[in-house]
Amino acid sequence: MTNYFKMAYRNLGRHRRRSFLSALALAIGTALLMFIVAFFEGEMRSSMETTLRLDSGHIQIRDADYDPDKLSVAWEYLIENPDQAAAQIEALDQVQTATPRLIASGIVSIRDESAGVQIMGIVPESEANDPYRNGLVAGSFLAADDREGILIGYPLAESLALNVGDQLTLLVNTSDGDVDEQQFTVRGIFTTGTTAYDKGIVFLPLAKAQSFSGAENRASMIFILLKDREMADEVAAAIQGSGYQVKTWSELNELLVLINDFSNAYIFILNLIVLGVTATVIVNTLLMSVFERTREIGILTAIGMKGRQIITLFLVEASLLALGGIAFGSLLGWALSAYFGSVGVYFGDLGISQGMLLEDRIYPYLTLSAALNLMITAFIITVLASIYPARLASRMEPVEALHGAN
Fold first, then answer.
1. Which of 215, 242, 269 represents a domain boundary (last residue)?
2. pTM, whole model, 2 decimals?
């Protein structure tokens, strides 16, 4: 076997530029795919984590008749005495935090400008609100007893030219179907890095949101975060009750889960397409080598080298090209993934806000298993593609090969 590698190395060295360019093509394809794999992985991780911490949580408890699309605060659709229910759930060992939230539809207006928003009443001290508290860019967070303060997102503040201390008018659809309005003072401006979400939501202390909307001591949901999201089904089964619907994160994000489940299939198909194109470069190199070495192949056959040995020789040449190209491409792909994994790839507002939240900046994330799968796939495709020129060389008759070389 050592002799095969020596001969293959010597043959590739005859045309160094062509061999180098062939390996480089494979390297570029490998690097590109490795970065794409890292990008998709980072995108899915970011989307899942962002959606869970901002929108759905790991579990939600709602009234049996509650429709999240209508954002109604009519009493018959709300949970009564939500603080008591949240405290009981939070006492479970698997639960990190459980907090009531009231959600209503409203309009923010200032001067002659207005914007439709979702009004969310929150318990300010709950750690479920850490994304907003940690994302403050100006002002301060809400206090539970604040009756005039409001927290708004940076994109909304920018579009309406609002600053901390400014006043705005907030209109809300109340529990009895009327519209009420009140002036609020901007206490703080936050960003979660997700423009589509930040521009369409405002926060009030839960007590104020309840009195403002007429919901009184009621909430739209109990928002639950777990210590491990994989325990969601177990916890949901433990807190089932009549008159309520208990939804886990997988049920609340069916589209996102579906995309995540099929992402590996998309990546695999993309790998085959790109690697198939780059493998043709290797095949072309070997075919040219076959026609240029017709006399040599004839001599090798004449002195007793069998067809399977010639096939092995060409497969070893393809393996060397593949190893060199894949090794360099993997290093380049890892470097690209590591760099953009730290600085991110900025996309801005993608306009996606329902069912799937995407941050404005995506951070590629390369896993060891994904990198190894790509390298192995690239190697196998390259070697398989080289079988045709190898078999072509092995079928040459000695006399015809020697005659054709003259």
1. 242
2. 0.81
